[in-house]
Each structure stands twice: as structure tokens, then as C-alpha cells.
Amino acid sequence: ENDRVLLETHHCPQCKPTAWRICDVCNENLLSRVCPVCRSKYAAQILHQWPSKSEIDAAALPEPPCSTMLRKLIASSNIAIYTSSSGKLRFSLPRDPTLPAHRREYVQAT
């Protein structure tokens, strides 16, 4: 299998970058396992990269279209909803919890 491409460097954080070389296929197979040379943890395999808060803020994502409906639902019930676009947790608490559920008035909080 001479058609495999050797990478410039391996992904072991313990070994020196130029201590040994590995082909792309073998490198993929080693991710999230142990280094074949020093037996330390090899580079992690990232299956899904979650965006950081700064990346979400930079994207300036609009609120979902159902946000108006969610606000109405929050205002009339005792639930909490976290919106990642604003980074806020919205919830409502009953003014008088002794009243029956169908007669309660709720106060919104953030």
C-alpha cells in the first residue's frame, strides 16, 4: 500500500513532532487510542465540534421563530427555558402558589 500519504508530523503530544512519521490512514485509526511508540494518550478523535460561546456570539444568531410562542408559554406556566443565543434562562414563578393552577398569575424572571 504505497499510495498512502505520510503526514508531516504525528499527533502524539508526548513524542517529539519529528521523532516518527505515520500515514494518514494509520493516524485516523490511532485517534483516541494510545501512541504506538510511547504508549501515552494519542490525539482525541473529535466526532462533533461544539461551538464556543464566543463563536455563538460572533455568529449573532437570530432568535428562533417560535420565541414569541415560548415567551407566552413561559408567562403562563411554571417552566424554565434556556436560550443559547441570548445566554439567558427565562422562567416564571406564581404570584400566589396557594391558588389553583388554572387561576394562578405568573411573574417573569430572567
The tally of helices reads 3
In total, the number of strands is 3
Give the low-confidence spans. none
Q: Percent of residues in beta strands?
A: 5-15%
Helix content percent band: 10-25%
Quote the distance from N terminus to C terminus. 60 Å
Round the Cα radius of gyration to an integer and report it.
26 Å
Which H/E pattern describes the elements?
Answer: HHHEEE
Characterise this structure:
There is one protein chain. With 110 residues, the protein is α+β, with helices and mostly antiparallel strands. 21% of the residues lie in helices and 14% in strands. It is built from 3 helices and 3 strands. The protein has helices spanning 24-30, 53-59, 67-75; strands at 80-83, 88-94, 106-109. A 3-stranded antiparallel beta sheet has the order 1-2-3, with helices on one face. Strand 1 (80-83) and strand 2 form a beta hairpin. It is rod-shaped, with a radius of gyration of 26 Å. The N and C termini lie far apart (60 Å). The mean pLDDT is 75.
Briefly, what is this?
This protein is an alpha+beta fold and 110 residues long. The protein has helices at residues 24-30, 53-59, 67-75; strands at residues 80-83, 88-94, 106-109. Strand 1 and strand 2 form a beta hairpin.
List descriptors.
110 residues; 21% helix; alpha+beta; rod-shaped
Topology of helices and strands:
Blueprint: H1 24-30, H2 53-59, H3 67-75, E1 80-83, E2 88-94, E3 106-109
Antiparallel strand pairs: 1-2, 2-3
